[in-house]
TrEMBL record:
Superkingdom of the organism of origin: Bacteria
Pfam families: MlaA (PF04333)
Record family assignment: Belongs to the MlaA family.
GO biological process: intermembrane phospholipid transfer
Presence of keyword Mitochondrion: no
Record-given protein name: Phospholipid-binding lipoprotein MlaA
Assigned keywords, A-Z: Lipoprotein, Signal
InterPro entries given in the database record: MlaA
GO cellular component assignments: membrane
Annotated signal peptide: 1-20
Entry's transmembrane regions: none
Length: 244
C-alpha cells in the first residue's frame, strides 16, 4: 500500500525537525528539556491558532449543523476500524482480557452494529479499550522523544505521532482505499474540534496558552499510556537549596 499524503507530510516534517535538532543547543538552564524545539513550536502554535480561527472553527461549526445522530454514526464507524489494531496492542501490552473485549466490540459493531454506525457493544458492557503502537512502546520504556507542535495536527511527542503510519496500515485499513483517509481524518478532526469548545475559555484565561496545552497534552498522554493510573513522577531535585 502506498503511503498516504498524511504520511508523506509527516515524514517531511520529521526530517526538518531532525535537522533543526542537530544544530540546536539550548543554553537556558530553565528551559523545558521535553521541549527542545520550543521556539519553532511556538511559531507553529501561532500558525495553528490563525488557521483554526479562519478555517477549522468555522468549518466545525458548520459541520455541527449535521444532525447529531448522523455525526455520531460517522465517528463511530471510523473508530470501529481501529479495534483490530487495539487488539494487537492490547496483546503486546499483556492485557488478554482487554484484547478479548476489542474482538467482541469489532464483531458486534461490525455486524449488528452495521459496520460501526451503531454501538451495540457498549450497551453489552464491552467498553472501548483503545491502544496505539505509541502507547505500547511508551509502556515498554521507549522514550517519548521531543515535544512537537505539528501544523494543523497540534501537540504530540515523537513516539505518539511517529507511529501513526504503522497505526494506519493494518486490517481493515489495508483493505480500504487510501482515499478514505481524508474523510476519516476530517470527520474525526471536526468532531474533536467541537468537543474542545468547552475548554476554550479556560485556555483564553491561562497566562500562557502554549504551556497550558503542553502540560495538558502530557497529562493526557500519560493517562492513556498507563490506563488512568500513571506512576508518580520523581520529585524535583532541590539539592541546590539545601543550605538556604
Amino acid at each position: 500500500m502506498q503511503k498516504t499524503w498524511y504520511a508523506k507530510l509527516f515524514g517531511a516534517l520529521m526530517s526538518v525537525l531532525v535537522l533543526a535538532g542537530c544544530s540546536s543547543t539550548p543554553d537556558d538552564p530553565y528551559a523545558d528539556k521535553r521541549d527542545p524545539f520550543e521556539d519553532m513550536n511556538r511559531v507553529v502554535w501561532d500558525f495553528n491558532q490563525d488557521v483554526d480561527e479562519a478555517v477549522i472553527k468555522p468549518t466545525a461549526e458548520a459541520y455541527e449543523n449535521v444532525p447529531e445522530p448522523v455525526r455520531n454514526s460517522l465517528y463511530r464507524a471510523f473508530e470501529n476500524l481501529q479495534e483490530p489494531w487495539s487488539f494487537v496492542n492490547n496483546i503486546l501490552q499483556g492485557k488478554p482480557k482487554d484484547a478479548g473485549i476489542t474482538v467482541g466490540r469489532f464483531f458486534f459493531n461490525s455486524t449488528i452494529g452495521l459496520l460501526g454506525l451503531l454501538d451495540p457493544a457498549t450497551e453489552m458492557g464491552l467498553t472501548k479499550r483503545e491502544e496505539s503502537l505509541g502507547e505500547t512502546l511508551a509502556l515498554w520504556g521507549v522514550p517519548d522523544g521531543p515535544y512537537l507542535m505539528l501544523p494543523l495536527l497540534g501537540p504530540t511527542v515523537l513516539i505518539d505521532r511517529g507511529t501513526d503510519w504503522v497505526d494506519g496500515n493494518y486490517f481493515p485499513y489495508t483493505e480500504v482505499d487510501s482515499d478514505w483517509d481524508i474523510p476519516r481524518y476530517t470527520v474525526k478532526g471536526l468532531e474533536l474540534r467541537l468537543r474542545l469548545r468547552d475548554q476554550e475559555q479556560v485556555l483564553e484565561n491561562s497566562l500562557d496558552p502554549y504551556t497550558f496545552v503542553k502540560e495538558a497534552y502530557y497529562q493526557n498522554w500519560r493517562y492513556n499510556v498507563y490506563d488512568g493510573n500513571p506512576p508518580q513522577e520523581p520529585a524535583e531535585d532541590f539539592e541546590d537549596f539545601e543550605d538556604f
